[in-house]
Amino acid sequence: MSSETLPSTMLAAVIYEKGGPEKLILERRPVPVPEPGKVLIRIRAFGLNRSEMFTRWGHSEGKVFFPRILGIECTGEVAACPSGKFRPGQQVAAIMGGLGRAFDGGYAEFTLVPEAIVIPFASDLPWEMIGAVPEMCQTASGSLENALELQAGEVLLVRGGTSSVGMTAAQLAKIKGCTVISTTRNPGKREKLLDLGVDEVVIDEGVIAPQIRERYPNGVDKVLELVGGESIRDSLNCVRKKGIVCQTGYLGNAWRIEGFSPLGEIPSTVRLTAYAGDTGDLPPQLLQDFLDNMINGTLNLAIDKVFKLEQIVEAHAYMESNQASGKLVVVT
Q1: This prediction's pTM
Q2: Domain 3-126+302-331: what homologous superfamily?
Q3: CATH of domain 139-274
Q4: Cα(first)–Cα(last) distance of the chain, in Å?
Q5: Less Cβ crowding at N or C end of the chain, within 10 Å?
Q6: What is the pLDDT of residues 278-329, one digit of tens each?
């Protein structure tokens, strides 16, 4: 797509003030003008992320200023690249690096981003599947490899197992040769987790350490904590000595553990860490391998629902309702 064929305007979802899903306003905006060192992307699909919901609520004050087009990830095709580093029509993803926060993000038909956050790939998968991958792949893989240092043969507990990251992490851990226990608050979702290859499913009613210790008296090796808040206290009691708990998510919508005392509440020698990756944690080969594994059936992508950009308010309301089992995707 050359600059001569670019439309003059695009559809975008813009937020002007904090609040509920209805604060996302659909409007026509000028298509960004290509600039040196940047890439204009024709967006085809993007995944929804809870961090975008937190920003919409106003939890990113001082870091994100309105009005803003949200969206920390997107996938599509290069519309223009003045430097020539990427060719027009090339399939690319963009994640993090200020996308949707410091500058306008993926909730639109086009976005202009720094070359440094653009990741090329090639895939014949439909866009609604591709759009689900970048942030989910980066978060799941980074949590397991960089934070938890997961090794073959270890026992991994995924707390928040029916989230998109939880379902992806479980599959990556199984490919690595680990035993995986996943939790869900909904007994009706047990079979979905077992179908993914999870070894055991625990129904999470807030305290699961006694169940885990009954099955593994010394504790599991690692915990991927995607719920956050109060569940972290319980997760710390699920791991063995020198085991690791990594908080990656906030499914419980709680940013803090009230009254938390590290010396009194972290069991001796147990390690508590966190993971919040960036563009560099998703090198092109990792993204390409993930997409290829979806094609050959090694990975089963967990998509709960696909929306149109025009349905962004409905999509955010659905995300906020916590009904989803898997990734929510928006296509343009």
Answers
A1: 0.89
A2: Medium-chain alcohol dehydrogenases, catalytic domain (3.90.180.10)
A3: 3.40.50.720
A4: 17
A5: N
A6: 888 899 999 999 999 999 999 988 899 999 999 999 999 999 998 888 899 9
Query: Is the preceding omega at residue 82 within 30 degrees of 0, hence cis?
Result: no
User: Residue 2's pLDDT band (boundaries 50, 70, 90)?
Assistant: very low
Tens-place pLDDT, residues 9-39: 999 999 999 999 999 999 999 999 999 999 9
- Residue 62 is predicted with a pLDDT of 83
**CB of 125 closer than 8 Å to CB of 295:** yes
- In the numeric block, which tokens belong to residue 86? 């990427």
The pair of three-digit structure tokens given for residue 136, joined into one six-digit string? 């989910």
Beta-sheet strands, E only, within 72-186: 73-80, 91-95, 110-114, 118-120, 155-159, 179-184
Write out the H or E segment, with its range, that includes residue 266.
none
Inter-helix orientation angle 134-142/284-295, to 10°: 110
The phi, psi pair for 3, rounded to 5°, reads -65, -25
* Cβ neighbours around 185 below 10 Å, total: 15
Give dist(CA 89, CA 92) in Å, integer. 9
253 CB burial (10 A radius; 0-12, 13-18, 19+): middle
